[in-house]
Amino acid sequence: MxxxxxxxxxxxxxxxxxxxxxxxxPNRFVYSATWDGFxxxxxxxxxxxxxxxxxxxxxxxxxxxxGMASVTLDGRAVAWQLSASDDGFMxxxxxxxxxxxxxxxxxxxQLAHAGCYARTVLTGAVPSGPSENVSDLFPRCRExxxxxxxxxxxxxxxxxxxxxxxxxxxxxxxAAHGYLLSQFLSPFFNQRxxxxxxxxxxxxxxxxxVVQAVRKEVGKDYPVLVKINSEDFVENxxxxxxxxxxxxxxxKAGVDAIEMSGGTPPxxxxxxxxxxxxxxxxxxxxxxxxxxxxxxxxxxxxxxGGIRSLEAAGSIMRDGIAxxxxxxxxxxxxxxxxxxxxxxxxxxxxxxxxxxxxRPAREGNGLQCVL
Length: 371
Hints:
Pfam families: Oxidored_FMN. This is NADH:flavin oxidoreductase. By secondary structure, the protein is α/β, with parallel strands linked by helices. It has a single domain (about 5-360), classed as TIM Barrel. The chain has 14 helices and 13 strands. It has helices at about 5-15, 45-60, 90-100, 120-125, 145-165, 180-185, 200-205, 205-220, 240-250, 285-295, 310-320, 330-335, 335-340, 360, and strands spanning about 20, 25, 30, 65, 70, 105-110, 130, 140-145, 170-175, 225-230, 255-260, 300-305, 325. The strands form three sheets. Strands 3-4-6-9-10-11-12-13 form an eight-stranded parallel barrel, surrounded by seven helices. The protein is globular, with a radius of gyration of 19 Å.
């Protein structure tokens, strides 16, 4: 088969149905979890939250992952963030899941706790994380007690159960980008000397206990995903080697798929980098780490970060780098991007990775492309 024939076959594979767990996904494109700033002041889902997902479902995306929903009220990272912290949020979340299904889409609920990046102005509480921080490297916080850790584990499992009851097709645990589960994994944040600190096995303990508790609540057949950093890109942070070891632990723990991202504040790179890549190989930020993953780990990999063209997505599929292509800002810019690619209009995304879409959301007007 010629190179061009390989490329066409890979592109065709991108639009074929595939399963995560037992859930059929119409194609291999994913709207990666994106805070859209459309929830109300208390975290209740609004019609605008729903519209963001439904528009992309109509635009051809195979799987949609919600913006991060806080599992506790004191774990909120940012204003106008979704919450799944008690049953009062269920009606709005149910409406979201049903609306996506009515648009013939599949949707997973992302669950998160901000840890030391929780905002006191929103929560009224002093932030807490794996360890006390009195430096200026990241927000001042206190060390979580073992009782508080148990509460967090229960909060994640209960929020996952709400997601299942609300009709979501699966849940994703956010263990990337410097939020709480990521903080415990990273020696940059985690200086504990008890069973949750020190060795990688200890630093991964909280995430694995959350997975175990979630699985107990939702059952063995309900899809559970984890989003993880390929590495932190910060001195003394989680390394690529350690990340792969954690992925192997997650596979053994029964996770159905992993989404690979990278970066954490205040590191060299964050998840939202600016500037468009100048080559096909550099268009995917974490391509090398993903290739190593596919050599070692058997469960499906969703790869996010910098992908802007059908050509790059096809090369990732052709080379066996990942099983799903996750996109964020390109789908903020063009909600029908996947549909037009499938229809044969294969120009790269119009997104130039300027991060201008974030500004309106921070001003209270919701995530939107400013081009």
